[in-house]
């Protein structure tokens, strides 16, 4: 099967371009082929989106929301099918795939509700017989660039607020995971979304992504991916005066204090470090542990890691699936070598799995380093794989300092039973998301998602905050005095 672009309400062959194979990371099998489109296809999609947007913006928001209710319903009806496709193309275990699809369904219903809110402000005017208010206005055509690790949820965080607010979009999914986008295109079509509101162009970042950013009619770029690519998106977007929303890397930590419930901490660490094989932006990759509980935590983690069955995510008993591809395997393995060279002590894992039945897949052993120095490379750089580094500290202040020492600022967590420590931590941890007595993953869709420092550029996905990315504030003054009233002048 060959996946083609979805433009102006139909699947269309691209103007040219090669196809790339989409591989199942669990076994190396080719699932389908995807078109690598070019600038001409982006132009075509933008033209359709621009035309559609004029009408779409005039559809009352509660009516736009009705399409989202229908999209949510179709996703729910198809949840199992979508989850299976997701596991096949991305590799995450089926339970997590179901969770990700659920995240998309939740986002559909949540943003549909926004169709009846989209709150602005009404404020008193400083002048008599004058009315003042602000409304959220759509921006126009928006460009969405999404990653392979959450092929559907992240796309819903961006596309659903975009359309409920009256924009139309061009979506470039990651070339590793185009099948979810294809499934979503079918859902958009069945939901009766007017042609041109949702457009999908498959292809590489350097071709399709660049063409989207450079296109004068694409007013917003919402990007999730690596910090390296995000920097490039921001630079190029800046040159073209685009509004650019970036969601990038993380180097998230769980802090375990000496009064923590250690069983709970172990569960939280395992779930957030090895779930999705460590390939979440929110994944825990550092454990900052108080010295008094370090030996016990190490022992408990080692014991619990024995239960992490590795394999094809379609097998319900498997806990850790493959990583996305061979290149990712090599990158992870490279970091494990760096860790060893830096003098960290390897307690578990540390190898690519090449046992007979797993050899064709991309599997890395869940890996645990201890005695890691806070400023070493494995404690500072994003690995994006199932590797955790234990760093010892002597106090809460030191733990917070170590947490904040990285260039990223997405998610952090603290395990403690002391309410004073909880409130100090939630104030002083410099990440966009903070968890107390839970791991670093599992953000819910109705709060803002994003991070500080090298993780983002001040915008947020999901929550009401996402509407800030996809709307422009318009302030409106209605003077019904019948005379010219001058603000700031006629004040008496
Ligand atoms: C991501 O890894 O980019 O909070 C998204 C979580 C998920 C989303 C992660 N709800 O872990």
TrEMBL record:
Residue stretches making up the Aldehyde dehydrogenase domain: 14-476
Keyword Nucleotide-binding: no
Catalytic activities: (2S)-3-sulfolactaldehyde + NAD(+) + H2O = (2S)-3-sulfolactate + NADH + 2 H(+)
Keyword DNA repair part of the UniProt annotation: no
GO molecular function list: aldehyde dehydrogenase (NAD+) activity
Residues of the signal peptide: none
Sorted UniProt keywords: NAD, Oxidoreductase
A Pfam family of this chain: Aldedh
Domain of life: Bacteria
Residue positions of the active site: 247
Its EC number(s): 1.2.1.3, 1.2.1.97
Role of this protein: Part of the sulfo-TAL (or sulfo-SFT) pathway, a D-sulfoquinovose degradation pathway that produces sulfolactate (SL). Catalyzes the oxidation of 3-sulfolactaldehyde (SLA) to sulfolactate (SL).
Record text on subunit structure and interactions: Homotetramer.
Family to which the UniProt record says this protein belongs: Belongs to the aldehyde dehydrogenase family.
Protein name per the record: 3-sulfolactaldehyde dehydrogenase
Species, as recorded: Edaphobacillus lindanitolerans
